[in-house]
């Protein structure tokens, strides 16, 4: 039987490329957990959401840990399909096609509410209605030419998170032409939900990561906190990373090197909704938060805001920390990021 990676058209080389693109890397997940005589470490890696998902679950019963991984993956895959704009009949695709979605799944409602909260908190630096701009810039890969500025100006007329209206179980757009993507927060939310499955089964020592967004709960097999690596945005050497130790916290990283449309990385998948172009200052934004969804959204906003603005914002938020690297490799961090 083919592996999940093979069935979805992912070669081993492609898996490694996607793993290297993740801004946050759980070192234990990549460089070999060696279980002690007390606990076993069950691991699983597969493509999902256009990236690589890595899970490590530590417990006394490896078979039960693997059952937890199976349940976790099933929950994550279901949510991934629900919130994907690449699946034509997904709820969010239906919303984008008709401008309104009644009886929306509660999970979709929850993520839209979080997206709106992030939009307000960041004064629009986080904005899920950038979808048409992202699509426009993806064409650069094929044409080699930057989008016409007049076209960008026209699209900006429908880019504003305040055009999203959530009423009970209905999501709708208040202006024709608005479309949205939840990619900048849904991935984190999906990791959170996967962790909930594991905790609900009593598996309290686990690590779940998807393309740089992760939650680490409990401890490693040896009782120590999880060790997390944050890569240099201008280096592919995963052995030369900044490392931190974490337990019962989430971290997410956004970066200009993850999905870029031009080789100089000036144009990439993160778009400033105020200008219509990729932000010009920040290369990498890592945020620690109580949930992966919040870390995910704040890390994306951190790419759009100037580094000093991001640090000032994070200093006002309980249990949130940040570590940013600009394009000249200058570093910015909140007081408690490494503590």
Describe this entry's structure for a reader.
- Helices cover 36% and strands 22% of the residues.
- The strands form 3 sheets. An 8-stranded antiparallel beta sheet has the order 2-3-7-8-11-12-13-14.
- A hairpin with a 2-residue loop joins strand 2 (40-48) and strand 3.
- The protein is globular and about 65 Å long.
- It is an alpha+beta fold and 339 residues long.
In short:
The protein is an alpha+beta fold and 339 residues long.
Tell me, what is the CATH class of the largest domain? Alpha Beta
CATH architecture of the largest domain: Roll
Major sheet size, sense and barrel closure: 8 strands, antiparallel
Radius of gyration: 19 Å
Strand % is: 15-25%
Q: What is the β-strand count?
A: 14
């Amino acid at each position: 039987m083919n592996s999940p990676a093979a069935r979805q058209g992912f070669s081993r080389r492609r898996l490694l490329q996607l793993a290297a693109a993740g801004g946050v890397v759980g070192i234990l997940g990549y460089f070999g957990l060696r279980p002690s005589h007390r606990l076993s470490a069950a691991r699983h890696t597969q493509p999902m959401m256009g990236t690589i998902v890595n899970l490590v679950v530590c417990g006394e019963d490896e078979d039960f840990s693997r059952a937890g991984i199976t349940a976790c993956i099933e929950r994550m895959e279901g949510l991934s399909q629900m919130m994907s704009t690449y699946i034509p009949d997904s709820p969010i695709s239906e919303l984008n096609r008709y401008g309104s979605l009644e009886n929306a799944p509660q999970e979709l409602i929850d993520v839209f509410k979080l997206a709106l909260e992030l939009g307000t908190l960041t004064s629009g630096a986080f904005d899920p209605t950038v979808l048409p701009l992202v699509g426009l810039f993806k064409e650069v890969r094929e044409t080699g030419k930057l989008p016409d500025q007049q076209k960008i100006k026209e699209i900006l007329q429908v880019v504003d998170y305040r055009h999203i209206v959530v009423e009970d179980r209905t999501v709708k757009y208040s202006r024709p032409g608005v479309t949205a993507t939840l990619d900048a927060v849904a991935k984190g939310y999906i990791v959170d939900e996967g962790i909930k499955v594991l905790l609900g089964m009593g598996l309290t020592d686990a690590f779940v990561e998807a393309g740089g967004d992760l939650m680490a709960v409990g401890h490693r097999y040896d009782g120590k906190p999880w060790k997390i690596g944050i890569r240099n945005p201008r280096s592919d050497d995963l052995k030369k990373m900044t490392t931190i130790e974490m337990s019962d916290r989430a971290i997410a990283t956004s970066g200009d090197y993850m999905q870029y449309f031009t080789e100089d990385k000036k144009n990439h998948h993160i778009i400033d909704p105020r200008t219509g172009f990729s932000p010009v200052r920040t290369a990498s934004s890592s945020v620690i938060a109580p949930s992966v969804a919040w870390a995910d959204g704040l890390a994306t906003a951190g790419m759009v805001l100037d580094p000093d603005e991001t640090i000032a914002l994070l200093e006002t938020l309980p249990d949130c920390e940040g570590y940013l690297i600009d394009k000249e490799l200058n570093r910015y961090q909140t007081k408690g990021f490494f503590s």
